[in-house]
Design goal:
With 960 residues, the protein is of the alpha+beta class. Helices cover 22% and strands 28% of the residues. The chain folds into five domains: 321 residues, TIM Barrel; 199 residues, Glycoside hydrolase family 3 C-terminal domain (Rossmann fold); 141 residues, Trefoil (Acidic Fibroblast Growth Factor, subunit A), CATH 2.80.10.50; 115 residues, Sandwich (Immunoglobulin-like), CATH 2.60.40; 121 residues, Galactose-binding domain-like (Jelly Rolls, Sandwich), CATH 2.60.120.260. It is globular. GO terms for molecular function: alpha-L-arabinofuranosidase activity; xylan 1,4-beta-xylosidase activity.
């Protein structure tokens, strides 16, 4: 007689019932083991091993050949949720297809990144969608719906949002704290996470490395609030190594058992630490159990969430899993039956479409589209490149801008130069020689045989040596700014340093977590020292070849002979063509990437010289910026007839660019973030208070180079007849868009709102809805845009910790960008007046300020709450509007703690001020009441100003 299967194997039961049954069958050690990223199998129950984490930001990453779509910031530039959903679905299908061939491919997908592109110097700018929370939330919801599928029970993949919370800098990213005031948190940061979670396809969230208000993100009490927006249990996966940081680099708790216990209690479910070795994590959690820092309920809560995710991925019901066919070869096979199941014609076409829609036309005086048959010089370091980033997959197909223009039938003769300086290196009487690598390098690349091992520095090729002048190799030198140089051999291979320290021409591209292909030249004697940037050590000529010097060993002085400058070569090529197309930008592994913020908005000086040289030789010069982030190119904008920008566009970037340049496709990408004119327009990269710093399009008071939402077309659109109504709690706007040009094109309809004469600082305008539409010449389209009224108009009322729609006038505007407004309509809202703060009854939380200068927020306790302290122990000025003092108060009690020598508090009400000294203290959490006696009672509704001097933390104020 066949045994009845246990309830957890019964698909007719709810997921909750099945999880509860399975949990009850697991021992406590087995449940603890589930909490590591690499959860082991439990053979007695038929439970398979499981791994959280599969990178898939714009295609499946790190697992071999996959369709590579444009970078996330490029997808953001499409402003097209439907397209982004299709990309997400394609990526999800490829995850399933690749997993069928390689079980290391995981279904718990760590994508997308929803950190807002608040600061363009952030090294990971390429990973986010936009600086605007609504646009980010819209595209993230679309991508996760595509990744997860739309089945009511099962999920194609389980998407995880990154990185919670306020993560926008790489410098000291695991030890620095972000000061995040309540309004910025509620109005700016949270909507980017809440929006996609509410949409229903998000399976989890990953905390960031940084601290927020002095508390590690992996201990964030706000995670519980995010979970309340989810219809299903939300899994929290730690970032790699972050659990150890809590008691390690952050020193926040005394030992690792306490650190992991606190993270588990705060809501972390899966611990990504120590790679595949789960033993340290299991030992620390077990110790925490033994010490009573956590109990079995804490373990079970996390294990249940992880198991629920696995049930929804179909792990326990393979015969019912509707997405199993996508990995079985019955869906998504290549059309010839021989290629990988994920390399489909549909995905290739989608890669082209996504790259086309991501192109933004920044400026055009009529040079574009290119007239048929014109000869083109394709120039610059990215002219014949398809650059990948840290979260890219391996290319199966590759079309560079040069490839795309050469293949286009409407383009005449095409010439090319990468703008590199041609140099030779000499040490004494010897000249650097690169041994030949027959059959490899550029030829292999062109054949599509891209070996990811080339990114790591190979040891199977001969090292560089020095010989007589007749054997000298001419190297191509590219200067990426900030001293970052790359050298490549005639066959295209980059000089790279392998683990044995020898320098070889071995890398297809700069790349890897440690970039081994970047060098600097430091003046030394009559020549230079060639310094390997990753190791920080100079190279030396040794018997075995060119190698990195041992610690403390002197480098070999080299003389650099420039045979021809790249600028001269570019000028010559530009002069010989009808049109010059300069393709400039960044390499995503150099000067701005994960772990490294950019230093400047400026284009690398060597690249700046290239467009100037080309333009001097040929006035018909087009500048194409291919980059992960904005540049300040004001002089190029003023001088050149046409500029375009696209993020690194993936495998089809060159095809898409050629189709846009020639007019096969009218450009319709829109900038997803502000392009500032100069570095001076930017706040410090760690200043997240965009209200006070006056940053992003929401608050920036200056004149940007290109505003948020900017993008031109080859046709013209007119907007008219804007109306706004409220229907069942929704704002419904309708506007007519007419294509009054002679070409078909897409328009991105952008609806903004603003508050007229607000009582508290509000943005200049903010995006409330958007839609990308196709419009034929002469066509008129009525576009309907919808937004929840309260969310669209409200702001966070710090006085009462709630969302508030204030009464008064609002203005709705439709624009071609956030600064190019085409029509508007005014709107009156009854709203709810913000009543005065009842401070006598409720007191005043110090962190609930309305205005601020010189302060930062820190942790009130290690579990929850915020306190206020002067930045760097200086002076903080805090303002609190409309405090109702009733018939008068004579004393204000300030609850504060000293974190050193003590300080001074001053309370000012109108013209009345009083101060109190804060005694020295060593415990930052030892708050004490300090009486500030006013010289006379003060009543009525007043603005209160609190001045804090010295290393003092303020919790709250009480009134008597």
């Amino acid at each position: 007689m066949t045994a009845e299967p246990p309830p957890f194997r019964d698909p007719s039961l709810t997921v909750e019932r099945r999880v509860a049954d399975l949990l009850g069958r697991l021992t406590l050690p087995e449940r603890v083991a589930l909490l590591h990223q690499f959860a082991p199998a439990v053979e007695r129950l038929g439970l398979a091993a499981f791994r959280t984490g599969q990178e898939a930001l714009h295609g499946v990453a790190w697992m071999g050949g996959a369709t590579v779509f444009p970078q996330a910031v490029g997808l953001g530039a499409t402003w097209n949720a439907e397209l982004v959903r299709a990309v997400g679905e394609a990526v999800g299908r490829e995850v399933r297809a690749m997993r069928a061939k390689d079980p290391r491919v995981g279904l718990n997908v760590w994508s997308p990144t929803v950190n807002l592109l608040r600061h363009p110097l952030w090294g990971r700018n390429e990973e986010g969608y936009a600086e605007d929370p609504l646009l980010t939330a819209s595209l993230a919801a679309a991508y996760t719906r595509g990744l997860a599928g739309d089945h009511p029970v099962y999920r194609r993949t389980a998407p995880v949002l990154k990185h919670w919370l306020a993560h926008n800098h790489e410098v000291d990213r695991d030890t620095a704290s972000t000061s995040l005031r309540a309004r910025v948190l509620r109005e700016y940061e949270l909507p980017a996470f809440v929006g996609p979670v509410r949409a229903g396809a998000v399976a989890g969230v990953m905390p960031a490395y940084n601290l927020v208000n002095g508390r590690p993100n992996h201990l964030s009490p706000l995670l519980a609030g995010l979970r309340r927006h989810a219809a299903e249990p939300l899994v929290v996966c730690s970032d790699a190594g972050a659990p150890s940081n809590i008691a390690g680099s952050q020193g926040y708790l005394p030992d690792h058992a306490a650190g992991l216990a606190a993270a588990l209690r705060a809501g972390v479910d899966s611990f990504t630490d120590h790679g595949e070795d789960s033993a340290p994590t299991v030992a620390r959690l077990t110790e925490a159990l033994e010490r009573g820092l956590i109990d079995e309920a804490d373990v079970d809560r996390a294990a249940a969430r992880l198991l629920a995710m696995r049930f929804r991925l179909g792990e326990f019901d393979p015969d019912l899993d509707p997405f199993a066919a996508e990995g079985a070869g019955t869906a998504g096979d290549a059309e010839d039956g021989n290629g990988p199941a994920h390399d489909t014609a549909a995905h290739r076409e989608l890669a082209v479409e996504a790259a086309e829609q991501a192109v933004v036309l920044l400026r055009n005086d009529g040079l574009l589209p290119l007239a048929p048959g014109r000869s083109v010089a394709v120039l610059g370091p990215l002219a014949d490149e398809v650059k990948l980033d840290w979260y890219s997959g391996t290319l199966l197909h590759r079309v560079s801008p040069l490839d795309g223009l050469r293949a286009h039938p409407g383009v005449g003769q095409v010439s090319w130069h990468d703008g590199a300086d041609l140099v030779r290196l000499r040490a004494g009487d010897g000249w650097l020689t690169v041994p030949e690598a027959a059959g490899e390098g550029a030829a292999a690349r062109d054949a599509g045989a891209l070996d990811p091992a080339l990114l790591a520095g190979r040891t199977d090729l001969p090292p560089l040596s020095f010989g007589p002048e007749e054997t000298a190799t001419e190297l191509r030198l590219l200067d990426w700014s900030g001293g970052a140089l790359t050298f490549s051999a005639p066959d295209g291979r980059y000089l790279s340093v392998a683990d044995d320290g020898l320098v070889r021409a071995s890398a297809e591209q700069p790349g890897g977590w440690v970039v081994r292909e970047v060098f600097t030249l430091e003046p030394h004697g009559e020549g230079h020292l060639l310094v390997h940037r990753a190791s920080g050590r100079p190279v030396v000529v040794a018997a075995e070849g060119l190698k990195v010097a041992a610690p403390g060993e002197d480098g070999t002085e080299l003389l650099v002979e420039t045979l021809r400058s790249g600028a001269d070569a570019v000028a010559e090529a530009a002069a010989g063509a009808d049109v010059a197309v300069l393709v400039l930008g960044n390499d995503p592994h150099i000067n701005g990437r994960e772990t490294e913020d950019r230093a400047t908005l400026e284009l690398p000086p060597a690249q700046d010289a290239l467009w100037r040289a080309a333009h001097a030789a040929n006035p018909n010069t087009v500048l194409v910026l291919v980059s992960s982030y904005p540049y300040a190119v004001g002089e190029a904008d003023a001088a050149l007839p046409a500029l375009l920008w696209t993020a690194h566009g993936g495998q089809a970037a060159g095809t898409a660019l050629a189709r846009v340049l020639t007019g096969d496709v009218a450009p319709a990408g829109r900038l997803p973030q502000t392009w500032y004119a100069r570095d001076a327009d930017l706040p410090d990269i760690r200043d997240h208070d965009l209200i006070t710093a006056r940053t992003t399009y929401l608050y920036f008071d200056g004149e940007p180079l290109y505003p948020f939402g900017h993008g031109l077309s080859y046709t013209r659109f007119e907007h008219s007849g804007l109306t706004v109504a409220e229907e069942d709690g929704e704002l419904v706007a309708r506007v007519t868009v007419a294509n009054v040009g002679d070409r078909a094109g897409d328009e991105v309809v952008q609806l903004y709102a603003s508050a007229v004469d607000p009582e508290v600082p509000r943005p200049h305008r903010w995006l409330v809805a958007h839609r990308r539409i196709a419009c034929a010449p002469g066509e008129r389209v009525t576009v309907t845009l919808r937004a929840p009224a309260s969310e669209a108009l409200g702001h966070w009322d710090v006085a009462r910790s709630r969302w508030l729609v204030a009464p008064g006038g609002y203005r709705f505007e439709v624009g071609a960008s956030s600064r190019d407004i085409r029509c508007r309509v005014d709107w009156q809202v009854a709203g709810e007046p913000a009543a005065p703060r009842p401070v006598r009854e409720r007191g005043l939380v110090a962190a609930d300020f309305d205005t601020v200068a010189g302060a930062e927020l820190v942790d009130l306790t290690q579990v929850a709450g915020d306190a206020v302290t002067p930045r760097d122990g200086g002076v903080a000025e805090l303002g609190y509007l409309a405090c109702d003092l009733g018939d008068g108060v004579a004393k204000v009690t300030v609850v504060a703690a000293a974190t050193g020598a003590g300080g001074r508090l001053t309370v000012t009400l109108g013209e009345v001020a009083a101060s109190a000294e804060v005694p020295a203290g060593a415990d930052r959490y030892a708050y004490r009441p300090l009486a500030v006696t006013l010289p006379e009672p003060v009543g009525g509704v007043r603005t209160l100003r609190l001045t804090v001097r010295g290393p003092v933390r303020v919790d709250r104020l009480e009134f008597g």
